[in-house]
Amino acid sequence: MASKRFSTHTTSNASPVGKALASIWKRSLLPLSTPSKRISSTFLKSGPFLGSRFNKLSMGQQNRVNLIRYLLQDFDLLILDESLANVDEKLRQTIIVHIKEIFPEKMFLYISHNLMEVSSFCDEIMVFGANNEKKHYRVIEGQNCQLNREVDKRKRDVTMLEVMNSF
């Protein structure tokens, strides 16, 4: 019951998404000259859903709106737990690369089951597993793809194999 109240309150079902995001932007701690301007131009310009009510959006559109809301807040660490799971692959890659460009000094904990995506875009990958040894996790170097830079597919494949064979 509590989660329903939280989602109703924070997603602003009563007003169009664009108005709700504008209200959050005005209340946010970020001045207009900081990343908030870039967030709006990167994520909102292709948002034909801004005039819609939140509960009428697809899951992928809802995920994008929620991500924008989180990025408009001041943060040091943002945990993205399958936050882009319902967003198509090409758009998901665009969003990840732009977030990394807009917030180079911020820390993101990106949780995903998409091995190719994690191997391509993360700089460090922490793989958890149960075994009989003391250490139940392993850190693997990712390919850390940046804007306007292609991923070396061979290196990415090696990273993916390392992750799959961690335990």
From TrEMBL:
Q: Name one Pfam family in it.
A: ABC_tran
Q: Which GO terms describe its molecular function?
A: ATP binding; ATP hydrolysis activity
Gene3D superfamilies linked to this entry: P-loop containing nucleotide triphosphate hydrolases
- Coiled-coil annotation: which residues? none
Q: Where is the ABC transporter domain?
A: 51-84
Entry keyword annotation includes Hydrolase: no
Q: Which UniProt keywords apply?
A: ATP-binding, Nodulation, Nucleotide-binding, Transport
Family stated for the protein in its record? Belongs to the ABC transporter superfamily.
Name of the protein this chain belongs to: Related to ABC transporter, ATP-binding protein
